[in-house]
C-alpha cells in the first residue's frame, strides 16, 4: 500500500518534470548547437495553445504567393520535421533560412543561418562569397564546380512561400548537385503548427 | 446612357469576381470536383486577413507523434497541388478515390471536397474491409492473392502531420496486398488543407 503510494508520487514528480507533448514517443526534445550555443527544440507544453500570429493567416495575394508543389525538382529530397531535426542535431550539413532578412529577424528555427534567396539570383561578389563558403570552386572552364560542396537544407515560410524553392532552382541552374540539396516545405508555418521551438535570431555580423 | 454605364459596371464587378486574387498555382486559380454528385469549386479563401481558428489551430498535441515525411519506401507522399491533380485526373474520372480516415462525426462536420469517409477503426473490421476492397475494385483470387489490376488509386488523409491514422491504415492496405503504386499519402491532411484556406464541404 505504502509502496504503491510512493511509486505514484515518484511517477507524478517524473511527469511534472518531463515533456508531456513529445516530438515522438521517447523523444521529448532535441538539442542542436550553433554559434557555440545549445538550443533545446521541443513542442509546446501549455494546454490550450493555439497558433494566432501571422502564420495563422490562410490566404496571401498571388502573385507572389502560390501553393508550392511537394517537390521542387526531381532529385531534391523534401523533408519533414523529423528529418530536419535529424539533419540539424547530427550536423549533416548547413541549415539555411532562405527568407529575406526582415522575415528571418522576427523568428526562425534554431541553428539556421539566413541566406536570403535573392542573393542567389544575380552574379555579385556576395554570391561568389556564399558559393565559396558552401564549398564551390571555379573550374578551369570558368563554371562553378560543386564536387566538394556541402549538403544544404533550405526552408522558408512554408507551403505558400516560394523563397526556398527559388533559391534551390537558382542553385540547380548554377550546377549545385540536387543530391546535396534538401527542401523543408512545411517551413515556419508547419513548424509552429506543431508547436516546435522558434527563436528570435540575434543580429549577426 | 446611364443604363449602359450601369451594365458596364455590373460586368466589371461580375468579371472581377471570377478571378481569384489568392490562387492555388499560377496556372490553377481553382478546380471543380464532384462531391456526392454535385460540382464543387475548390479554391482558397479570398479574404487575406482570415486566420485559421478552432480545433485545427491548436498547437498543443500531447501523445501525437510527428509523422515522418515518408510512411513507407514505396508510398508517395503528396502535397496540396498533387491532391488537386489527383482530384481532376483520377477522382473526377472515377479512377481514384480520396479517402478521409477521421471519425464519422468530424467528417460529417467538414471534409475535403470529393472525399469519402472510411473511419480509421474500420481497419480491424474484416467484414467491412472485405466490402471496401470490393468497392475499390480489388478482387480476391482463388489462390488468396488480390487482383488489383482494375482497382482504384487511393489518396489517404487524416488530421495531418501529427496523426498516425493514414500511416497505419496504409500499412494495413499494403498487408492486404493493395499495391503501393496505387496508394498516395497526403501527410498535411485536414490541418494543412485548412491553414492554406482551401475549400471544405459539410457532409450532413
Give the topology.
The complex is a heterodimer of chains A (205) and B (204).
Chain A lengths: L1 H16 L11 E6 L2 E6 L34 E3 L1 H9 L4 E4 L3 H6 L6 E2 L10 H9 L3 E2 L5 E2 L6 E4 L7 H12 L6 E4 L2 H7 L12
Chain B lengths: L1 H17 L12 E5 L2 E5 L33 E3 L1 H10 L6 E5 L3 H6 L5 E3 L8 H10 L3 E2 L5 E2 L5 E5 L7 H12 L6 E4 L2 H7 L9
Parallel strand pairs in B: 3-9, 4-5, 4-8, 8-9
Antiparallel strand pairs in B: 1-2, 6-7
CATH class of chain B: Alpha Beta
Helix content of chain A: 25-40%
In sequence order, what are the helices and strands of chain B, one letter per element?
HEEEHEHEHEEEHEH
How many structural domains in the coordinates of chain A? 1
Largest sheet of chain A: 5 strands, parallel
How is the largest sheet of chain A built, in terms of strand order?
3-9-8-4-5
- Under CATH, the topology of chain A can be stated as Oxidized Rhodanese, domain 1
- Strand order within the widest sheet of chain B? 3-9-8-4-5
The oligomeric state is heterodimer
CATH superfamily assignment of chain A?
Rhodanese-like domain
Radius of gyration of chain A: 20 Å
Number of helices, where a helix is a run of at least 4 consecutive DSSP H or I residues of chain B: 6
| Terminal CA distance of chain A | 62 Å
Q: What is the C-alpha radius of gyration of chain B, as a whole number of Å?
A: 20 Å
- Largest interface (C-beta under 8 Å): A-B, 46 and 46 residues
CATH superfamily of chain B: Rhodanese-like domain
Shape of chain A: globular
Structural class of chain A: alpha/beta
End-to-end separation of chain B: 49 Å
What is the CATH architecture annotation of chain B? 3-Layer(aba) Sandwich
CATH class (first level) name of chain A: Alpha Beta
Amino acid at each position: 500500500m505504502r509502496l504503491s503510494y510512493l511509486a505514484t508520487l515518484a511517477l507524478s514528480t517524473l511527469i511534472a518534470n518531463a515533456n508531456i507533448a513529445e516530438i515522438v514517443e521517447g523523444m521529448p526534445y532535441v538539442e542542436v548547437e550553433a554559434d557555440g550555443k545549445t538550443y533545446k527544440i521541443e513542442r509546446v507544453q501549455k494546454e490550450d495553445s493555439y497558433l494566432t500570429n501571422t502564420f495563422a493567416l490562410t490566404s496571401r495575394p498571388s502573385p507572389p504567393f502560390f501553393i508550392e508543389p511537394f517537390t521542387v525538382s526531381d532529385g531534391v529530397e523534401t523533408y519533414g520535421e523529423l528529418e530536419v531535426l535529424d539533419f540539424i542535431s547530427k550536423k549533416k550539413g548547413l541549415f539555411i533560412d532562405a527568407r529575406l532578412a526582415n522575415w528571418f529577424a522576427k523568428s526562425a528555427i534554431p541553428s539556421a543561418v539566413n541566406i536570403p534567396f535573392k542573393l542567389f539570383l544575380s552574379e555579385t561578389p556576395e554570391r561568389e562569397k556564399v558559393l565559396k563558403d558552401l564549398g564551390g570552386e571555379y573550374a578551369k572552364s570558368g563554371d562553378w564546380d560543386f564536387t566538394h560542396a556541402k549538403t544544404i537544407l533550405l526552408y522558408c515560410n512554408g507551403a505558400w512561400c516560394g523563397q526556398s524553392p527559388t533559391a534551390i532552382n537558382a542553385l540547380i541552374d548554377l550546377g549545385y548537385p540536387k543530391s546535396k540539396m534538401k527542401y523543408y516545405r512545411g517551413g515556419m508555418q508547419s513548424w509552429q503548427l506543431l508547436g516546435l521551438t522558434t527563436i528570435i535570431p540575434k543580429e549577426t555580423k | 446612357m446611364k443604363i449602359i454605364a450601369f451594365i458596364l459596371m455590373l460586368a466589371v464587378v461580375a468579371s472581377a469576381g471570377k478571378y481569384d486574387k489568392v490562387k492555388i498555382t499560377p496556372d490553377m486559380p481553382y478546380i471543380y470536383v464532384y462531391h456526392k454528385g454535385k460540382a464543387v469549386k475548390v479554391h482558397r479563401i479570398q479574404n487575406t486577413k482570415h486566420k485559421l481558428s478552432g480545433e485545427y489551430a491548436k498547437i498543443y498535441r500531447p501523445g501525437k507523434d510527428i509523422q515522418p515525411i515518408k510512411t513507407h519506401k514505396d508510398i508517395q507522399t503528396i502535397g496540396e497541388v498533387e491532391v488537386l491533380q489527383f482530384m481532376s485526373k483520377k477522382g473526377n474520372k472515377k479512377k481514384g478515390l480520396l479517402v478521409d480516415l477521421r471519425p464519422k462525426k468530424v467528417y460529417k462536420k467538414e471534409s475535403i471536397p470529393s472525399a469519402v469517409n472510411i473511419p480509421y477503426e474500420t481497419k480491424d473490421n474484416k467484414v467491412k474491409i472485405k466490402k471496401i476492397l470490393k468497392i475499390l475494385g480489388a478482387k480476391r483470387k482463388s489462390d488468396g492473392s488480390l487482383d488489383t489490376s482494375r482497382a482504384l488509386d487511393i489518396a489517404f488523409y487524416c488530421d495531418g502531420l501529427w496523426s498516425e491514422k493514414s500511416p497505419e491504415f496504409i500499412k494495413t492496405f499494403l498487408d492486404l496486398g493493395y499495391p503501393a503504386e496505387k496508394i498516395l499519402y497526403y501527410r498535411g491532411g485536414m490541418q494543412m488543407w485548412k491553414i492554406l484556406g482551401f475549400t471544405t464541404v459539410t457532409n450532413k
